[in-house]
Design goal:
CATH superfamily of the largest domain in chain A: Aldolase class I
Largest interface: A-B, 48 and 48 residues
Helix content of chain A: 40-55%
Strand order of the largest sheet of chain A: 1-2-3-4-5-6-7-8
Order of helices and strands of chain A: EHHEHEEHEHEHEHEHHHHH
Distance between the termini of chain A: 50 Å
Oligomer: homodimer
Number of domains of chain A: 2
Shape of chain A: globular
Number of helices of chain A: 12
Structural class of chain A: alpha/beta
CATH class of the largest domain in chain A: Alpha Beta
Largest sheet of chain A: 8 strands, parallel, barrel
Strand content of chain A: 5-15%
Chain lengths: 321, 321
């Protein structure tokens, strides 16, 4: 229905990076290559292919390639990268070392996104500046944003504003607990604190609001939106990129390659290998503003559909248990 | 997160009525009884148990009980109805006869909801007045609202306002094509035209927006919201009642009985019997503002996952086919 065509919005695909949280990034090279080709053909602007992490800190036997996203692997899998899309990796504070980054002119990576909790904003600033110093465009994601107070958030954002030249800073609804009015409140704080950065949004679908909250964020001023193919992602998953591209009505976007990738890759993946999407245990942790770890554990147990007991357990005060 | 507690909002469960569109209302008496008990225990305000239709017009061998919702069946299945919940049926214009309604004091039914297209508003007024004359509370649903123009809608609503004493008139996003800003536009029109009625909203989940659009409708002035257990409903389904009740934060609501019903009834129903929810063919008809019938047909065929072909077919002008 809506005829909005907001061409200032950029779309960041994080299908492999976020989807990999489900299966320790054990996606085949062929699968990742197919997803990249589909996303490049859709016109999406950024492709976050995985985490960059040190092989000294994580065992390559336990984790797939996209936990490390080494340059030599990327060069092999992304045979041809059109200029219309930028390729990047995410880094966690303390899980990557300086020598994990080649100088930009020796790398196929365009951008590096630093994931941080608000309490670690000083470390995030340092890491963003380190990768920027190596020549990469830098972004910052503030995780678990539903757990921080507005004053601390404003202060942290002011530090990012003053101390980095990150291109964008994103709100991450890690617990999938935000309602649209919460998103408005947060985007307003970001707009006030960040005068020289784009504002981004990364939703989770615990309450079927990842896409709706992304719409709300854009309508409040965000211009940098995360999404994944078919909404794949840990737990309830993310904002589906097919919905976001269709809504944006930017003529540069085309959802047909994404639909083809879903039918060719994601239908089987979901039926036979990994689970994501709206399921009651994730809904419960979302509505309670909790990390999904208890719901993930439940889904791996033989009580995976014991929803009422799970709800009662999480809502009973410790002293009554 | 959000602390809103909007106690003026009433919740209408239409699990059996709308879910029955998938399986011709062939739910067992035990299942319907269990769902009613869960919804009554949750504190929801209205329970729409099925359609009321004439057995002269539909073959009882082809359709289950909830296509007809005869009073004798309702009395058997709803053994005990608390005063806190009202029981009702939906009627379609032309599919019900005057003598299908006992006088209210001989019936267990509290309310009758008339489903209509805007073009048939005169007939809807007559039918609403007929059931009102028999003593029932009356509601009106305006279906396929994404296909009507604002002028016609205002005129039709003025007729309902002047000619009926329906308690509520609801916006029905039959195609699941509305975005939140469309909902705002429509609720504004309803608010201007209907001074003596409540305004309602019935969302469909083609674009994962049924719950978000319900939130938007409430924030714009709607106070009468449809929802179903686990979002069951034809095609992509509806607004999940567990999400809506959790959001409303009204202390009279309790989601635990709903979660129990999902684990006891709906997990198996979905895995073994019937399909609903966010699936790409429904997303496609939703974004194109079309009736889901082509998507439903695709899902029943051996091409059920041929999404890209389906999209191309629906978006190619007839003259190029």
């Amino acid at each position: 229905m809506s005829m909005i065509a907001n061409e200032s919005v950029k779309v960041v695909d994080c299908t492999i990076r976020d989807g990999g949280l489900i299966n320790k990034w054990k996606f085949s090279d062929e699968m990742v290559s197919a997803v990249f080709s589909a996303i490049a053909a859709s016109g999406a602007d950024f492709f976050e292919i995985g985490y960059r992490a040190s092989e000294k800190l994580f065992d390559p036997k336990e984790f797939g390639s996209w936990r490390f996203s080494r340059d030599d692997v990327l060069r092999k899998v992304i045979a041809k990268k059109p200029d219309s899309i930028k390729l990047g990796v995410m880094v966690d504070i303390g899980r990557v070392e300086t020598d994990d980054f080649l100088p930009k002119d020796e790398s196929v990576v365009d951008f590096v996104r630093v994931a941080t909790y608000l309490k670690d904003v000083r470390k995030a600033v340092e890491l963003a500046n380190l990768v920027k110093g190596r020549g990469y465009e830098s972004f910052i994601n503030i995780m678990a944003i539903s757990t921080v107070n507005s004053y601390d958030l404003s202060e942290g954002l002011k530090e990012i504003e003053a101390e980095t030249d990150a291109t964008a800073v994103s709100i991450v609804d890690s617990y999938g607990s935000l309602y649209p009015d919460d998103v408005k409140h947060l985007v307003d704080i970001f707009c006030k604190s960040l005068k020289t950065k784009k504002i981004g949004f990364h939703g989770h679908n615990n309450q079927q609001l990842a896409f709706a909250n992304t719409i709300e964020a854009v309508q409040c001023g965000a211009t940098f939106c995360d999404a994944t193919v078919n909404g794949i992602g840990r737990g309830a998953g993310n904002c589906p990129i097919e919905l976001l591209l269709a809504w944006l009505k930017n003529p540069r976007y085309n959802i047909e390659p994404v639909l083809k990738a879903i039918q060719d890759v994601f239908v089987d993946l979901r039926e036979k290998e990994i689970e994501w999407g709206y399921l009651i245990p994730y809904m419960i942790t979302g509505m309670l503003n909790e990390h999904p770890r208890t719901a993930i554990a439940l889904r791996s147990s033989d009580k995976k559909d014991h929803y009422a007991d799970f709800y009662r357990q999480l809502t009973t005060p410790e002293c009554f248990k």
